[in-house]
Amino acid sequence: MDFLQGLLATNSANSLEGAAGTINDVINIIIGALGGVVVLYAIYLAYKFMTADTDDKRKNAKAQMIYAIIGVIAIFAVMILWNTVLKTALIGGGENITK
């Protein structure tokens, strides 16, 4: 319950107020969790690549590692885009969004 109250409370001048702040916190948690999952998957794929005994298995692991790297880049792009859109909406005339 304290965690939920911490999400809803605004105790900093830089934090967002109300629903926008809560949505921002939830989105950032989801993006962080996805990033962690992709990093763990990349570590698994590196192990799979190193222990592969045939060329086909190595090619498969290498292709999956490339996709995992693309996934990390996509997650960072979404994080940057989300923060940019949110800050633009709040700074660029959208101050009433949180009231």
Strand portion: under 5%
Let me know the number of strands.
0
Straight-line distance between termini: 24 Å
Q: Estimate the mean pLDDT confidence.
A: 77
Low-confidence stretches: 10-14
What would your notes on this structure say?
This protein has 99 residues and is an all-alpha fold. The protein has a domain at 33-94. The chain is 78% helix and 0% strand. It contains three helices and no strands. The protein has helices at 2-8, 18-50, 55-91. Helix 2 (18-50) runs antiparallel to helix 3. The protein is elongated. The model is unreliable at 10-14 (pLDDT under 50).
At a glance:
The chain has helices at 2-8, 18-50, 55-91.
SSE arrangement:
Layout: H1 2-8, H2 18-50, H3 55-91
Helix pairs in contact: 2-3
Which characteristics define this entry?
78% helix, 99 residues, mainly alpha, single chain
